[in-house]
Design goal:
Residues 10-338 form the FAD/NAD(P)-binding domain. InterPro entries: FAD/NAD-bd_sf, FAD/NAD-binding_dom, NDH-2. The chain is of the alpha/beta class. It has 12 helices and 25 strands. The strands form 7 sheets. Strands 7-6-5-2-1-8-21-20 form an 8-stranded mixed sheet, covered by helices on one side. A hairpin with a 4-residue loop joins strand 14 and strand 15 (251-254).
């Protein structure tokens, strides 16, 4: 009598970002029929390619082209739109809150923790009320409409102090996210002034605040200095070694005594591992990340895998000089770790042994607005237009799916031929306002 066929292995992936998407893509490509079932859980039905958010905010890329619909590309996987609340590995269950609000528990045989990172907010008065992040596509769309709406308001006000406040834009954080958002949006506002009779480029004030003594720590210091010089030539005020003390009611107070009013405060000062990890029985380090082996398994739990921003993965390219070195939280490592992770899961399912993840950082590249960039890659320092081309080529290659690559390339081509749109769709931020007003008339 033949033995009964065992049930497929249940693989549960928490998070639909870089790691979640690329792991699921790798698994659905390599898994045999009925070998395993794959379920991916994320609060959003799409993966967001975050390096393109500044260009989406500035109108260089259509926002829908920056996201990858999970259900469309993961046709052999189950996609659940839900938020993870708790991980209980001892019971092999994960508690989630589904999109309709109900709570349910998911069981698994193999778990992939890919919850990524969230914005790290400091206890600064007024930050939660006044700050705007730029980690999601919703924030990028909101920020674009918000900034252009401020130009509209400034063009119509008769109050000089209010006008000054409306035209003052503040960015806190001098990493890649902050510098790229600042540069793209400053480019957009300067371009937009040609359509306003009473706003000149010099009327707009952009301010960068960074607590460290330099910007862009991912590139060598000389390139950081060069970038500051380029920003200042564009009229952007740069405050280094300066902390933000208060943002209450839009009144910015800095640690050096500088004070000014700003209706736009963009917060990009760091990220932290998803706080859900603290509500789990998995080992986490002092920075809140899941402790991982070089093979991308959670320490002490070979049936749990992890990678990306929420994982403390040993960086084997640096551990000889620094035994505690872990891979930096960037897209370059997240994508490569995810592909390696998928291969390792397949090997273990088929009785093999996982291999260690090793990748030597290729460098970093940042866009500084249209036709401007900076790169420290392949042991070369690249500035200006060549770096901008390098930035676009690298991220276009890294963007998942041919569909999205083609759409983004078309956006860039049309933008070069007809220039970018600078119209505000501010009604999106309060779409029911006009309907409510009509109901009262």
């Amino acid at each position: 009598m033949a033995a009964a066929k065992s049930e497929p292995t249940r693989i549960l992936i928490l998070g639909g970002g870089y790691v979640g998407l690329y792991t699921a893509l790798g698994l659905q490509k390599k898994l045999r029929a009925n070998e395993a079932s794959v379920t991916i859980v994320d609060p959003q039905p799409h993966m967001t390619y975050q390096p393109f958010l500044p260009e989406a905010a500035a109108g260089a890329i259509e926002p829908r082209h920056v996201v990858v619909p999970l259900r469309r590309v993961l046709k052999r996987c189950h996609v659940l739109t839900a938020r993870v609340n708790k991980i209980e590995h001892e019971r092999k269950t994960v508690t989630v809150e589904a999109a309709d609000g109900h709570i349910e528990q998911l069981n698994y045989d193999v778990l992939v923790v890919a919850l990524g990172a969230v914005a790290r907010l400091l206890p600064i008065p007024g930050l939660a009320e006044e700050g705007i992040g730029i980690k999601t596509i919703g924030e990028a769309i909101y920020l674009r409409n918000h900034v252009l709406t401020k130009l509209d308001q400034a063009a119509s006000t008769l109050d000089p102090e209010l006008r000054k406040r409306l035209l003052t834009f503040t960015v806190v954080g001098g990493g890649f996210a902050g510098i790229e958002a600042l540069a793209e949006l400053e480019d957009m506002t300067r371009f937009a002034t040609r359509y306003y009779e009473n706003i000149q480029p010099e009327d707009i004030r952009w301010v960068l605040v960074e607590a460290a003594g330099r910007i862009l720590p991912e590139v060598r210091e000389t390139l950081g200095v060069w970038t500051v010089e380029q920003l200042e030539r564009r009229g952007i005020e740069v405050f280094l070694s300066t902390a933000a003390k208060s943002f209450e009611n839009g009144h910015v107070v800095l640690s050096d005594g500088t004070e000014f009013d700003s209706d736009t405060i963009i917060w990009t000062a760091g990220v932290k591992a998803n706080p859900v990890l603290a509500n789990s029985d998995l080992p986490i380090d002092k920075r809140g990340r899941v402790e991982a082996t070089a093979a991308l398994q959670v320490v002490g739990h070979p049936d749990v895998w992890t990678a990306g921003d929420n994982a403390a993965v040993p960086d084997l390219s640096r551990t000889e000089s620094d035994p505690t070195a872990t891979c930096p939280p960037n897209a370059q490592h997240a994508v490569r770790q995810a592909r390696h992770l998928a291969k390792n899961i397949i090997k273990v399912l088929r009785g093999g042994q996982p291999t260690d993840y090793f990748h030597k950082n290729l460098g970093a590249v940042a866009g500084l607005g249209l036709h401007k960039g900076v790169a420290d890659a392949l042991n070369m320092k690249i500035k200006g237009f060549p770096a901008w081309l390098f930035h676009r080529a690298y991220h276009l290659k890294a963007m998942p799916t041919f569909n999205r690559k083609a759409r983004i390339l078309l956006d860039w081509t049309l933008g070069g031929l007809f220039r970018r749109e600078v119209v505000s769709l501010g009604q999106i931020n309060n779409p029911k306002e006009e309907f409510a007003r009509a109901s009262k008339s």
